[in-house]
Design a protein that fits this description.
The protein is 73% helix and 0% strand. The protein has 130 residues and is mostly helical.
């Protein structure tokens, strides 16, 4: 299951297919038994194809799911058309799609601003409630 989205059926099915393909390949179409070391080829292929996706989602979860101000910043970030396009394309193609470097830089600056603003609002709210 991917972090943040909770999506898992596609990746489970893809994983099963890639593992089966590796078994058929390593067993030479069923002529030989495979062992754990033969499955390393499957794991290497899986990592090459999907590890970046999982790493990006892990970073997003660590940055934006750690407290309420960070979640507020995430909601604010998701209002951006560029973020929506990148998110849609990444879900559609099941991989992190390449972005526009200028738009990525703008997004980073806006996101940091959102996190700072959300933390400031949290501090102000705590002060008012004290």
């Amino acid at each position: 299951v991917t972090k943040c989205s909770g999506e898992g059926i596609y990746f489970a099915a893809k994983s099963g297919r890639m593992c089966a393909e590796a078994i058929v390949e390593r067993s030479q179409n069923g002529q030989y038994l495979v062992d754990e070391s033969d499955l390393r080829i499957y794991l290497d292929r899986w990592d090459k194809k999907y590890m970046l996706t999982y790493q990006v989602l892990d970073i997003l979860q660590k940055v934006f799911y750690r407290n309420n101000p960070a979640r507020e910043a995430f909601v604010e970030m998701c209002d951006d058309d560029y973020v929506q396009k990148m998110t849609f394309d990444s879900y559609l193609y099941k991989t992190v799609v390449p972005g526009n470097p200028l738009e990525d830089a703008k997004l980073a600056v806006n996101t940091i601003g959102s996190i700072v603003r959300s933390n400031a609002l949290r501090s102000a709210a705590k002060a008012l409630s004290a």
